[in-house]
Amino acid sequence: MEGEVGTSLKCEMQGNGKWVNGIVVNESKSAKFPLSFWEIGVFGGVVLSYALGLACVYLTMPASDYSFLKLPRNLEDLQILRDHLESYTSDYTIQVLVGYCVVYIFMQTFMIPGTVFMSLLAGSLFGVFRGVALVVFTATAGASSCYFLSKLIGRPLVFSLWPDKLTFFRDQVARRKTRLLNYMLFLRVTPTLPNTFINVASPIVDVPYHTFFFATVIGIIPAAYVTVRAGITLGELQSVGDLYDMHSIATLFLIGLVTVTPTLIGSKN
Fold first, then answer.
1. Alpha carbon distances (Å) from 77 to 107, 201, 222
2. How many Å apart are CA 106 and CA 101, to the nearest integer?
3. How many CA atoms lie within 13 A of 46 on its CB side?
4. Are 117 and 228 contacting, i.e. CB atoms less than 8 angstroms apart?
5. In the chain, how long is the greatest CA-to-CA distance?
6. Is 19 in a helix, a strand, or coil?
7. What is the tens place of the pLDDT at every residue in 169-225?
8. Quick check: 235 and 79 in contact, CB under 8 A?
9. Torsions phi, psi of 84, nearest 5?
């Protein structure tokens, strides 16, 4: 009887969805992004908050032509933005800092590409040490904002965009519960999984926020240092690919290997 019920249930679920590690995902609903009115309201509220923050920064800046203000998409855009902002940074440091933070966190929260250019800009405007501190703060705040937003309304998006990666990530997290911080550090330091995916998927696969937070703060420091340091010599860069030579990539993987070693040893015991 039990076998018949199980078979019947499985057949019924095959018609409406699919199994993902014991969880049934309704593919038709996931594809349509079924958000409730409350969830849409939360999303809209977050967007409005960032928009108000940017508006306040803009209104406190001196009257001038700000047509150069746009999200940089290449090194040429970034150099133009840097050249204009250099003259404002010394006189309006607070406004530039707040504006930078709001834009970076907004981009991280809503998975907008181009944060690497913002990291380069930090190095160009503020130097290595202040630039690294700024990037680590904004990247962590943006990743945390994305984490909590995904926890509320991100499940349909993750299942729709990255079903295979989500299955892999869930399996790895489940196997490393006792040393999850080491594994998350490894993911942050190395390009094994995209940071955007990690931010969105972590709450879906039950990565605790404190583990997510500490892994983010510590794990992004090496890459932030490489990028911010390159921003000081922005004019010498020919492409974004020049940021990471073989030496830099090998160093990041070595750091990642050191962080994940305790996890690998623990899984064998």
1. 17, 31, 25
2. 8
3. 19
4. no
5. 78
6. strand
7. 999 999 988 889 989 988 988 878 889 999 999 999 999 999 999 999 998 988 888
8. yes
9. -75, -40
